[in-house]
Write a structure and sequence with these properties.
Elements (H helix, E strand, L loop, with lengths): L5 E5 L4 H13 L4 E4 L8 H6 L8 E4 L2 E4 L1 H11 L11 H17 L1 H9 L2 H22 L12 H7 L5 H8 L3 H4 L1 H11 L2 H4 L5 H9 L2
Parallel strand pairs: 1-2
Antiparallel strand pairs: 1-3, 3-4
Helix pairs in contact: 1-3, 1-7, 4-7, 5-6, 5-8, 8-12
Length: 214
């Protein structure tokens, strides 16, 4: 399937779209990226390609849409399976990687959003929930270079895009990720050494400026 038939509907600040950009970079797949204006008006193409949720990211491959970031990454790994595998070949390890990525999706975003949008007791409760999930993730990482062991992969892609928001979480929540989760920050720096990651993530300062002005 031709690389030039790949299109990504995205919004620059969205960590879920960033996932797909990393996956495509790892696979060395060329694609067209269309920036969505989610603040003012969603495009007709987005509504056509994702009529149920009407949200990004959306992969359009050979004219057909694939929605939801984790599904997109798995699809990408299966279609271009001859290039830099992102999921383990062992079926049990593959299932575990999917479980951990799903855990990140369900447990990280909501408390991180409340850290940014609330204050007082509600924010403290959000921070507690945020710290609990990152404690689990740090224990899961342990002393491994990456979440799947020696190889950078699906779980790493699922989480690393949140790192571009860390400065925003720290600023609004008044805490330090490096103090609380040094292994996660060391892993973040290791991931950022990869060209696929470094070129796909926006400057954390720009994200902070965006939300300060929101």
């Amino acid at each position: 399937m031709a690389d030039n038939q790949v299109t990504l509907l995205d919004f620059w600040v969205c960590m879920y779209g960033m996932r797909f950009k990393i996956a495509l970079a790892e696979k060395e797949i060329k694609y067209e990226r269309l920036e969505e204006d989610l603040i003012r008006k969603k495009s007709n193409l987005l509504i056509e390609m994702n009529p149920i949720y009407k949200k990004i990211p959306v992969l359009i491959h050979n004219g057909k849409p694939i929605c939801e970031s984790l599904i997109i990454i798995q699809y990408t790994d299966e279609v271009w399976n001859d290039r830099s595998p992102l999921l383990p070949s062992d079926l049990y390890q593959r299932a575990q990687a999917r479980f951990r990525a799903d855990l990140i999706d369900k447990k990280v975003y909501l408390p991180s959003r409340r850290i940014r949008t609330t204050k007082g007791e509600e924010q403290e409760a959000a921070k507690k929930e945020f710290f609990e999930i990152f404690k689990i993730l740090e224990e899961e990482l342990g002393d491994k270079p990456y979440f799947q062991g020696e190889a950078f992969g699906f779980v790493d892609i699922s989480l690393i895009t949140f790192s571009s928001w860390f400065q925003t979480f720290e600023t609004f929540g008044n805490f330090s990720m490096e103090v609380k989760f040094p292994k996660i920050i060391a892993w973040t720096k290791r991931c950022m050494e990869r060209e696929s990651v470094a070129k796909s993530l926006p400057d954390p300062k720009k994200i902070l400026e965006f939300f300060r002005g929101a």
